[in-house]
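SAMPLE LOG
Freezer: B-3
Tube label: C17
Construct: single chain, 572 aa
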Amino acid sequence: MVYFRLNIKFVIALIILLSSCANFSAYFNTFYNAKEQFNEAEIIRKKSENNKLSKTATDLYKSSIEKSISILSEYPDVSFRKDAYLVIIKSYFFIGEYKEANLAITSMQEEFNNEEILEIAYWSALIKWKEGRAQPAINALINLLEDDIDISLQSKIYLSIAEIYFEQNLNEKSMDYLELAAQKIKERSEKDQIYYRIAELSFRQEDYSRSLTAYKEVIKNTQIKSRQQLSNLKIVQIYRFQKKYDMASTSIKNMLLDDNYQSIYAALELELAKLYQIQNMYDEYISRLNSIIEDFPRTKESAESSFLLGETTLLKLRDFDNALKYYAMVRSESRVSLFIKSAQLRIKEINAYSKLKTEYALWINNSPVDSTSKSVKNSKKINTTPKMLYGIAELEALHFNNSDSAMIYLDKLINLENNKEMMAKALYMKSFILDKSQKYKESKILKNQLIANFPQSDYAFAVLSSDSTLTTSTKSSNDILVEAEQEWLANPALAIDKYKSIVLNDTISESGLRAAYFLAYNYDYNFVRPDSARKFYEWIIRHHGITDQAKSSKARLSFISGILSKDFDNKN
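STRUCTURE (predicted):
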């Protein structure tokens, strides 16, 4: 009988134990799954660009929240409840549901009787940041640093402060905290990541001293071969920017002798070529660029070398035909080259220049007297000659770095008769070139002439804005345009009069073009007065024929003419 009672007690105890184990096992499996899904989501988030969440990561975070909530509601007495709360808080944070994250924080604080939990304070601060309260978030994080916290949390706090400052465009402060984080972190791969970010950001901001130090730390800590090579290449570039040419050259030559840097040999050769250019060693520069094209064909470096050869051939040698060949090579060397657009633009400029020079030669040959004389008259070409001369001058001065040649063509333009349309532009450009040459007295004479003869023009407005010693009592077209834009909502009739006054008195400026297009558009679409719209569309085409507004005006004018023609036919 006693034996039987003992067996009963044993069985009851065993049942309780097994039941407890079953509950623990269910809890443990649920929490394990929640943690696993959270960790999977973290891996995906950290690999994504700009921490932008994919649907997969979002779903994993949501699932980890559901499982953690299940644990908190079904197993009130088990351990790891703090961990479950933290999974919920972090997951809500990363999916951007900050209100729910705050509610979870409040529940956690109530359950643990407001005891000091540093992780809660940390995530509360981050939520403040995401809710738009950046400074309170920074203050809270800095206060946390005053507590006795472990190195891991310290580094997380530094990284978070850095991220907040970076978002506020306070890049200097951001990098200060990134450096503090890197100093605290022991894991080499993490140090590598942080220092690489510091190096890249500071390089873009031209803080080369800080960038150099950071790239050296990357080389010391990285286990990624390509990153080590890139960092060494960036260090060479920094030496070049800092005018430490000997150090740059020595570093390049040492790497060119090391097989470990074979994958960046082309980039190193290009850096060496740029050093030769800076030091005016043009024979070595040209030779090195040609060898890159020959030794490393179909690469980004050979494409850039082709572009640089084009630049030298165009600007230094003024060999337009060979320059065209080099620019055309850029795309064939690399279809992903950053220099393709620049090369295509150069090709357009050279072709435009060649066309204008052909027109110029014809004009000279057809002119009855010396082309610089005020008596030059070419009745058939009189309207296009000023634009032709200005076009050549603009290309020479602003695109081909040849101010002396530009001045010759500008003088020919200024001495022409019937050149009112281009006169203001010519005076403005010549004064600009004289300022660059520090010939300020001659420049000022032209500026005063510009203000006197074209007081409303944008060019007069530009010189008045740049030189406080110049004055005029006449309002510029730009000033009147601003007044008209401000008046439009309150008094449209008065605004229309102002727009019309600009068009009447200023046929050469951008402000005049904007005013005319505004009038044409409103008469066309809002007031439905096609005759008035046509008048201003025709004005745009006549005075600003090569602009985008002129293209739109031509299309619209064709449509309006068709409508008016139909109306006329119907009436008759």
